[in-house]
Amino acid sequence: MIRLEHISKNYITSQGTVTALQDIHLQVNAGEIYGIIGQSGAGKSTLIRCVNLLEKPSTGKVIVDNAELTALSPNALRAARRKIGMIFQHFNLLNSRTVYENIALPLELSGQNKQKIAATINPLLELTGLADKKNHFPVQLSGGQKQRVAIARALACKPKVLLSDEATSALDPETTNNILDLLKNIRDTLNLTILLITHEMAVIKACCDRVAILQHGIMIEENNVGQFFANPQTAIAKNFIVSSLKQTLPPVIAEQIIHQAQTNHHPILRLWFFGGAATQPIMAQLMNQFNLHINILQANVEYIKQHAMGIMILAINGDENKIAAGIQHLQQLGVQVEVLGYVPNDIIPFA
């Protein structure tokens, strides 16, 4: 449904050429919710604006619903854009117009009559949960309700593709979850394809089918969401996942940790459990089979797209050779082991 081929975007500044996107290849299948995540300045907004040519790529092709937008005449491009809806972080509603009138705006601009507009908008008000807010003005709405109006307006022209540019970034967590549930329902009800960008892993986890990471304008990793969480391939992917699970070291340990092994120190490990390994009694095996002492500092197991995933931070103490053998045993079971550092033996108690 959406295909980007060799997309690059350069800006000419007084200091020289700035490359915002570099040789991007992207395929979003019909009916997917596809997420692009990255830190601020990664090029996410530039990329999504290239899809509907609000930003014209410096090189490459943009193909949406089998139409190569980068090759269309201005009139043909305007027609093609009507099949691409877009929602933004800050809603962009007109304060002087009611909910109904805000949603109706693109239909009025296209010259549709009042009866046809009403036949389109009233079902959208029901779909987005705004039927009782039809005659309200934006100032009378919550942030989540304003975003629902923006979503309904983006759907008014019956698009096949919906683009979401950080649409939940200004919302609280509960409202964000409600909006993401709405997007999933819209995808299923209207058979839409949704491409969204975000810097929040919770958004990817909650509603996306596939995900890509953008860093410095380069797409560095792509996978279905379950495999992405279960087996991240890059350091930035791991950092996003860890931050979403709030896996942090207690301050007393973070202050004492060093990166080189020393006498009278023991290691702090981060374990990544995937699939069946996430439900095995691994700690019991380490203690019984290798005579190791374990102190679990942080732990979390959850299921994402039917993939079990667990992250655990633990302190481990015992004979150095047995610790090495225990780590090798974990790796043979499919557990990824990362040594975060070493702390003095008297910092952490062991039973």
Note down, in words, how this protein is organized.
- 34% of the residues lie in helices and 31% in strands.
- The chain contains twelve helices and 14 strands.
- The strands form three sheets. It has a six-stranded mixed β-sheet with strand order 6-7-8-3-9-10, with helices on both faces. A four-stranded antiparallel β-sheet has the order 2-1-4-5, covered by helices on one side.
- Helix 6 links the parallel strand 7 (161-165) and strand 8.
Helix % is 25-40%
Q: How would you describe the shape?
A: elongated
Computed CA radius of gyration, to the nearest angstrom: 25 Å
In CATH, the homologous superfamily of the largest domain goes by the name P-loop containing nucleotide triphosphate hydrolases
Count structural domains: 2
Q: What's the β-strand tally?
A: 14
Identify low-pLDDT runs. none
> How many angstroms does the end-to-end distance come to?
57 Å
| Strand residues, percent | 25-35%
Summed over residues and divided by their number, the pLDDT gives a mean of 90
Helix count from the secondary structure assignment: 12
Q: Give the structural class.
A: alpha/beta
- CATH topology (fold) name of the largest domain: Rossmann fold
Give me the strand/helix succession. Answer: EEEHEEHEHHHEHEHEEHHHEHEEHE
Largest pleated sheet: 6 strands, mixed
Give the class-level CATH name of the largest domain.
Alpha Beta
Which architecture of the largest domain would the CATH scheme give at its second level? 3-Layer(aba) Sandwich
Which strand order does the major sheet show?
A: 6-7-8-3-9-10
